[in-house]
What we know:
alpha/beta, seven-stranded parallel sheet
Amino acid sequence: MTDFGIIRGKVVVITGGARGIGLATATTLQRYGAKIAIGDVDETAVKESGTARDFDHYGRLDVTDQQSFGTFLDEVERRLGPIDVLVNNAGIMPTGKVIDEPDALTRRLLDINVYGVILGSKLALARMLPRGRGHIINIASLAGETHIPGLATYNATKHAVLGFTDTLREEYRGSGLSFSSVLPTLTKTELISGVPTPPLMPRPAEPAEIAEAIAKLLVQPRSKVRVTRAAGLLSQVVGLLPEPIGDAVARVFGSQHAFLEQVDAGARKAYEQRVRTEPQ
Length: 280
């Protein structure tokens, strides 16, 4: 049985914490006694989420801006004490063929999903290394272990997050710090609005499942955790197959069309508009 008592009193910072996986993680870790600080570029949403759940600290945080990120972490440490855990969760997932992806959107994906993770990790490292303790958890995706038509740049960003996190783990081995990647399958948040679940694919995950996996990482650190177990196992098995066979299996499971012509554009419109235009 997992002893979540170790989480009590830990200062945890979560980016993209106003909604989805970030908010679920904040709520779960608060229940286990952590001191919670959520940051999000959506100032209205982060205020609503922070006040509704009485988090210890909340505020606007642009993960692509060094001053915004650094100032946010400074304020957390001033109010709550040294940061024990940083969860780099902020990310966006627009869909469509890469040829139709505006250059500005490509850069936003890279800035938020990759640079934001690298920047946050560097800022956290600067605070954690002198103390010889801390845990950086980067939210990747099972898309970081495969390739899904309609998500080319998103896939690239999640491959990058995995490679970056694994490298940090070796680069700072023996430092007292832990580094983990979390690889969710399709999760029931705005990110999959209008995206059908292929009939042969494992079910989508609930945000609370991702949050519980993160809580368990704080108790027993691991380099990677895949959620759900069934989706993670499928991803690993397909990855071990010879490329033509693996690609064929993925097509059988429906990956070829789910993020392209099968997307319900109307149901997805609000999310696509937000991530394409809103500063993150």
